[in-house]
Each structure stands twice: as C-alpha cells, then as structure tokens.
Amino acid sequence: MLSQFEEGNAAVDHNDDSVEYSDDAKFASSVFYEDVNDIDVYVEDGDLVTAGLIAGLINRALVDIRIETPISLGGRSEVIKRYEGDVPSNRSRLYILDGDYSSILCNMQRHVIPSGIFRL
C-alpha cells in the first residue's frame, strides 16, 4: 500500500517482480551502489537472504572492505559470461557463484568454473 506522499509522486515498488531488467542493466547497476560498496560484488541470486549472507561473509572475512549490496546477475551463466568479458577498471570486482544447485544435484565436478570466480 502506498502512502499519500508516494501516491502523488509515482513511487516505484522495488519489490515488484513484474519489472524485468536486461543483463546489461543488471551489470551496470553497480554504479548506483558505489557509495555503499567498496568493491563491486556480482552474484547469481538476488533474494535478500542470499545477498545478506554474501555481504556478511565478505564483511567478516575482509574487515577493510565494506559491502552492503551484492549485485545479482540472475544466474550462473551470466556471472561467468561477465567475468570472462571483464575489462580493467578503477574498481575492484568480485564474482561469486553460490553453488546451491550443484551441491544439491551432486554435480560440482561437472561444472567448469573459471579460476577467478569464487564459489561458496
């Protein structure tokens, strides 16, 4: 439900699943988080639980690095594609695959993961 202020100002519901972003837009969205993320972190899944878990793990492991919002690219193949097409930048980037489906299906050995991508 929108408040009166939101109704008059055409508020955007960021939890609205009917909005679909292109793969390029998802990747480029990291620019909006530069103030809260010291590095760009790209992950498969975008749900709040996974994002919070990944941010928490990174913040605990790398105490000098602050991550609030990992960027969801929408799937394993997109994370790998963006990693392989990565070009040098003034910002550090981290690519993470969560490995959930591979673990469930016992197929970890079948997936070829480039050496620069991290798997949780």
Report on the structure:
The protein has 120 residues and is α/β, with parallel strands linked by helices. It has one domain. The protein has five helices and four strands, in the order ααβαβαβαβ. The protein has a four-stranded parallel sheet, with helices on one face. Strand 3, helix 5 and strand 4 form a beta-alpha-beta unit. The longest helix has 14 residues. The protein starts with a helix and ends with a strand. The N terminus is likely disordered.
Question: What's the topology here?
Answer:
Layout: H1 4-8, H2 23-28, E1 40-43, H3 48-61, E2 71-72, H4 76-84, E3 93-97, H5 100-105, E4 118-119
Parallel strand pairs: 1-2, 1-3, 3-4
Q: What can be said about this structure in brief?
A:
The chain is of the alpha/beta class and 120 residues long. The chain is built from five helices and four strands. Strands 2-1-3-4 form a four-stranded parallel beta sheet, covered by helices on one side.
Strand content: 5-15%
Our measurement of the CA-to-CA distance between the termini, rounded to an integer number of angstroms, reads: 37 Å
Number of domains: 1
Largest beta-sheet characterization: 4 strands, parallel
Number of strands: 4
Q: Characterize the quaternary organization of these chains.
A: single chain
Low-confidence stretches: 1-14
Strand order of the largest sheet: 2-1-3-4
Gyration radius, to the nearest Å?
16 Å
Helix content: 25-40%
**Average pLDDT:** 78
**What is the overall silhouette?**
globular
Enumerate how many helices there are, as a single number. Answer: 5
Spell the H/E element sequence. HHEHEHEHE
Structural class: alpha/beta
